[in-house]
Design a protein that fits this description.
CATH class of the largest domain in chain A: Alpha Beta
Oligomer: homodimer
Strand order of the largest sheet of chain A: 19-18-21-20-22-23-24
Largest interface: A-B, 100 and 101 residues
Radius of gyration of chain A: 32 Å
Number of helices of chain A: 23
CATH architecture of the largest domain in chain A: 3-Layer(aba) Sandwich
Number of domains of chain A: 4
CATH superfamily of the largest domain in chain A: Succinyl-CoA synthetase domains
Structural class of chain A: alpha/beta
């Protein structure tokens, strides 16, 4: 017996160290030969080096040896003639499949050798290859791809055409942890197949997850491996074996990504967002000019720092001393808001650089979005050279409310609070401004990112992470220029503060529109979906959802567990709220008998306890009061959804006041739980909703969906941040 | 050769008449034997009678005959010994599978007979059964079930465990048309599998649809067939053959469903909704009583007919002459609003019956919803006996605005328009009132259905179908007591007017809440989904959606085709609107080159034509004007989605006025197309949205999703009604 691969076994060699040197040597030889992919035997060598189980194989020189090898591997096996002179093995009668016993293997050996001799009498016969054949279990696919934005990703899905049709595959950033890998097994629609259905055995989840982890480590260790497929992998109750491996490589040098350190980002961002001095390049006294709007917003917004208008001729603009260039301004300038036409921006930036300005807010359009890619590259290079961070170009600017700073040409804004929002598009920025004002959503910052020539979502995340004025971050984006970096920062930030992302261009048509709009390549949406979840980011399905999450999530306390209770005066709302809970992955608590009995004491005999607790419509305020108090006092309940029905007995504002009284009473006792409310009634419910919202209970008229999606957003964040169980 | 089934063939005997007499005879014999299911041979007989292809089989008495049979059927075949004395055929060596040639069959015949003789020398051997074996093609399942509400349904799905795990199956009411059946093939997630993937052949869709139709006819012809499974059916490019059939029967008499004729419904509903005289049983002058609220609403609502308070003692209530009983009122009474406690309702109803009153609006609770099932049955029986239609009990009453009729104890309501709404729950009814008032949604009627002891959604549909004051019908429901009847009426009504349904209790948890609330068994949601679509009903996913559809759909003209254009000032909105179009099944028109060139004339050189047409944010009102005019004038564009971005150059109200000017200009030319708008900007966009909406353009601030879902709802209706293509 020669060459038996001893690393391969049904349960895999978990815990063994990967043999990186072996793979390095192999890849170096592939590179030397100028090849772009590995042969099947090379693929197997790579698998062996990383402890990825593959079918066992050995070459036998006698029938007895073949039988012995086969018995060691387990049946069935395949036999294949090994001869440098026989290229078409099947034609030569040199292949036998599905041999199920030692006798059959021994006989098969003799037959194959005889066939080969008959086919070509002078062929040099080295022996017969004995190969373990894989059958049974669940066929799955484990793979790796290289995404332009996120880099190395590991993929998992079931095998077979049907799954391909249904596109039932899931991704994680590589390297993936074992927890990541296990979550992938649950992350496909057909997850139940792995748990064993219709009497089938459940697969060995640890072995399968281990394989995913190993693949993710392999592609991370060797960036030149751009694609890898283990297809199919046979997953059984005893382990997982990759029947076939395909590896594609690319040895071209990848450009280094420009990435300042966290400390550098924080330093520059702090100077930009909390400047002592702001210069307005292109400041103007003339109504209607952008440079005039910016000046007005800075002054009228109440910014307390120094404002320096820059203008070639004017001595003074809007009562502030003007300078021909930033270089003429005495003392330091932290940030320059640039409002001059695109063609003059480069020169102004050089002066900013010479002045040591930390950041430039580039409002003008006329760069990459209009096809002027060179112009954008030019300013990018200037920024790098002088270490100026660039916001934009092609943006509305930004608001930072703790400093009363409206560095924008849009309408002034002063609804102060703790939500920081950003948008890639100006239109969406204006929608944020309008919604925030209308819904009285307190805001710490609104930032336009536009073409993202430099400053990106991860820079903002880093700043807001450390910003005590910000408790939630919501971002509209059409692409991530460096998804890998975003993911790294987001994974860290989401453990402290909720991050909401509205990814536009989710669909093929949307992605097409996105690329016509910003010339950005929109990523595969499924990858975005999986990676954002992996990072603990709350993904908003639409614009209004993002806005409602940003408004509601920071208002809600963090739930301590998964038990949600619906408490409703309207049975009909209870049903719709239950639907919404299921749709949004909230867990309706199973009511313990003692708690059920306790609720029943407060509600009419025909009211429904269980969950929802239906107190029925004709009840006085005290019934809402007593049941809500019970729900908040009982430790087993972690969150409450209120369904209110407008009646004469309990009018809307009476309901609102009763709820707030109970909440106040509980706060005094140190009990805080997330509560949301759906109000069904005549227009007075709008005022009651506003009153509740202003006092910490996100409440919504005429909808049973929004309160539940907002609570669910809080849950998604809390789960991702590891705050629940 | 004996017994060869000649009806069976790979492509099926399409067009042949079913042999009902044969099935009748067979079922009679099953009934006589007291059995609840059919044997496999009986199942095959039923299939034969209905032209459902099954594998061919025959019994051969000689080896030559067996070979001849097999050659006629096509290979492979199976052989099985036929002997009354041999029960365990396999044990006796009496079964051979997968024989692929005439020679193998002849040899097999001899071998089987020899085995059998050896197994039991004295066994009486009648011959050998030759069975066609099915391989290849796509395995599918065709079945039929009997639903408590919808009656006979035909089901279709792919075969295999994976599909079961994914619950990928679709239903239609039986009998199903060929169009219905074809739509089922496209109605599963894995529909692509049937079209041939990865080099696989597409299945014969006509044959497969024919099989579905035949199954649906069979279960409709024979109501005693409660379940039927053809599983698996092998569908290939040449036809479809059912490999196995399972039929379950139930001969118990089904209770007749009470169903007045359409004319009777219409007559009674017209008297109820447009009464000349309304009696208020339990009318009261005392503030806070329900009978007082009803009187106030009738009088203050401006109802012009006669109002007769019924009170045991009072001579007059609120200036109207009172009577001790409806029987004391001179002349006819059309409808009685009943506001007395549950226990007095039965007696009052008897008097209503004796008076010949057409309908009773039963406001009191205390019937089935509180466990008083007998009380509800009692009033039901009185209603039937006297031919009084009952609305409720356990309702808020109803509003019919064309008659200024507020027959309810809730707040009065007078926002007149053309949407008729109903709800099963009082809370949802109040949400309808509040939303309608707040959003200025014009309403023709709001009706509470509550326990639905008699009047049901189909009665309302019948009335609103013929009601010229109503142009859309929107219904909240938790169950359909007679889904079959609803489906029949809805299929007819939706061809004239859009019908929107919010089905609460969609999810397992929601359904549980529904049953605790109304004691109604919530149906399988997938069945509701498929059947509602089959009837042309627009299903609303949530409460707010139902309200927005009811408000927006009647405002929109019916599109003449599928080509939707997005015209946007905000590129960012364009991307989100595109996403929403894909999510909602709208077809973004592929821009023809000439039209693209025409748009490009009006927009800046860096603006993106194609679809979305991105006119860019800095454009003056004339750009919106010229591009919208072009979009409306070009026949190839059928609907327009506007994305507005708030700028100083084109403020919100200017945008609104420009849009309305163009729309007016086009209306004068006879051009009307559905237009919806998404407005991104500061709070002024709220006023602009209202102004647009009031003038026929559904417009929404801070959301890119709602305008698209409303347009999509219009499309869903228009497609279902056959108005597009």
């Amino acid at each position: 017996m020669q060459d038996t691969k001893t690393t391969a076994g049904a349960s895999g060699p978990r815990g063994s160290k990967p043999d990186r040197a072996a793979v390095r040597k192999l890849l170096d030889s592939v590179r030397a030969q100028g090849r772009a992919s590995l042969t099947a035997p090379e693929g197997k060598q790579v698998c062996d080096a990383y402890g990825i189980p593959v079918p066992q194989e050995a070459v036998a020189a006698t029938a007895a040896e073949a039988a012995k090898c086969a018995s060691a591997m387990g049946f069935p096996v395949a036999l294949k003639i090994v001869s440098p002179d026989i290229l078409h093995k099947t034609e030569a009668g040199g292949v036998l499949l599905d041999l199920k016993s030692a006798e059959a293997v021994a006989a098969g050996y003799e037959r194959i050798v005889a066939n080969a001799r008959q086919y070509q009498a002078d062929a040099k016969i080295l022996g017969v290859q004995v190969q373990q054949m894989l059958t049974g279990g669940q066929e799955v696919i484990i793979g790796a791809v290289t995404d332009g934005s996120f880099g190395k990703l590991v993929a998992f899905g079931l095998g077979g055409i049907l799954v391909e049709v249904l596109k039932d595959v899931t991704f994680r950033l590589a390297p993936a942890s074992e927890a990541d890998a296990l979550s992938m097994l649950d992350g496909i629609q057909a997850a139940e197949m792995l748990r064993g259905v219709r009497g089938g055995e459940a697969v060995d989840r640890t072995a399968l997850a281990g394989l995913i982890v190993r693949v993710s480590e392999l592609v991370s260790d060797f960036p030149e491996i751009t694609e890898l497929d283990l297809n199919p992998v046979f997953a059984t109750a005893k382990g997982a074996i990759a029947a076939d491996v395909r590896i594609v490589v690319d040895f071209a040098e990848q450009p280094e990504r420009y990435r300042p350190s966290e400390a550098e980002i924080l330093k520059a961002m702090t100077r930009i967002m909390k400047p002592a001095t702001v210069a307005v390049i292109g400041a103007s006294a003339e109504e209607g000019k952008i440079g005039n709007s910016v000046m007005k917003n800075l002054i009228n917004g109440g910014y307390k720092g120094r404002i320096c208008p820059i203008h070639p001729k004017a001595a003074e603009i809007m009562g502030r001393k003007a300078y021909p260039s930033v270089k003429d301004v005495p003392g330091d300038i932290d940030v320059a808001v640039v409002t001059i036409p695109a063609k003059f921006v480069a020169q102004a930036l050089v002066e900013c650089g010479e002045k040591g300005i930390a950041g430039a807010v580039l409002i003008p359009s006329g760069f990459a979005e209009t096809g002027n890619v060179e112009g954008q590259q030019e300013i990018q290079q200037i920024g790098r050279k002088y270490n100026i961070r660039l916001m934009g170009p092609n943006i509305y600017g930004f608001y930072y409310l703790p400093e009363n700073l409206c560095a924008t040409f849009c309408t002034p804004f002063d609804v102060r609070g703790h939500a920081a929002l950003s948008s890639q598009s100006g239109g969406i920025g204006m929608a944020i401004v309008g919604f925030s004002r209308s819904a009285k959503m307190g805001v710490s910052a609104i930032v336009g990112l536009g073409n993202k020539s430099d400053l990106d979502e991860d820079d903002l995340l880093t700043f807001f992470e450390h910003d005590d004025n910000t408790s939630i971050i919501a971002m509209h984006l059409e692409d991530l220029k460096d998804g890998r970096s975003f993911a790294e920062v987001a994974s860290r930030v989401t453990r402290k503060k909720p991050v909401v992302v509205l990814k536009a261009g989710r669909t093929a048509a949307g992605a097409k529109a996105a690329s016509s709009h910003t010339a950005a390549l929109a990523g595969n949406d499924k990858i975005y979906d999986d990676v954002l979840r992996q990072c603990g980011v709350i993904r908003a399905p639409g614009l209004r959802d993002m806005l409602e999450y940003a408004r509601g999530v920071p208002v809600l306390p963090t739930p301590k567990g998964e038990n949600v209770l619906i408490l409703t005066g309207a049975g009909g709302s209870g049903v719709l709220l239950s639907d919404a809970c299921v749709d949004n992955g909230l867990n309706l608590m199973t009511m313990p008998p003692d708690l059920d009995a306790a609720f029943r004491k407060f509600i009419p005999p025909f009211g429904a306890a269980g969950n929802p607790v239906d107190i029925t419509g004709g009840e006085p305020p005290t019934t809402y009061q007593k049941t809500l108090r019970l729900a908040l006092e009982d430790d087993r309940i972690h969150a409450v959804i209120l369904g209110y029905w407008h009646t004469i007995v309990t009018p809307p504002m009476v309901f609102a006041r009763v709820v707030l009284e109970v909440v106040e009473e509980m706060r005094a006792k140190g009990i805080t739980k997330p509560i949301v409310a759906s109000l069904a009634g005549d227009v007075e419910v709008e005022q009651a909703s506003e009153h509740l919202y202003a006092n910490g209970i996100p409440a919504y008229p005429y909808t049973t969906e929004t309160p539940v999606t907002v609570l669910a957003a809080k849950y998604k964040w809390a789960r991702g941040a590891g705050l629940i169980r």
